[in-house]
Protein: TnpV protein
Organism: Adlercreutzia hattorii
Amino acid sequence: MEMAYREGGGLLLPTLATEEEAAANLGPFALMRDEYLRSSKPELRADLLAQGALARHLAETEALAEAMADDLAARVAKSRGLDEAAKVADPAAWAAKMAEAAAAAREAAAMKVVYA
């Protein structure tokens, strides 16, 4: 395990990210992953934090889950015939069905990426 150090008072101190820095600019998947690590895998979270890799891990989780959710939502919409014609025919129903597809896709992405 490699760590970065800084000098302080004649001592080498490990450079650790603060909780606020680690949580800055995180999306919903990253926040869910952080909460999962806190509650279910505290040793892994502590290790990532000590290595200075927690923020990167959470950002990668966010990007992967977001991409997966977008892809799944598009595939579900296509399989349900939610195209431009359906949008023009009944915009309210199309919007409700698209929201349902997006919610299902986000849930699936969370289960596969966040809670893995």
Observations:
- Residues 54-79 form the longest helix (26 residues).
- The chain has one domain: 5-114.
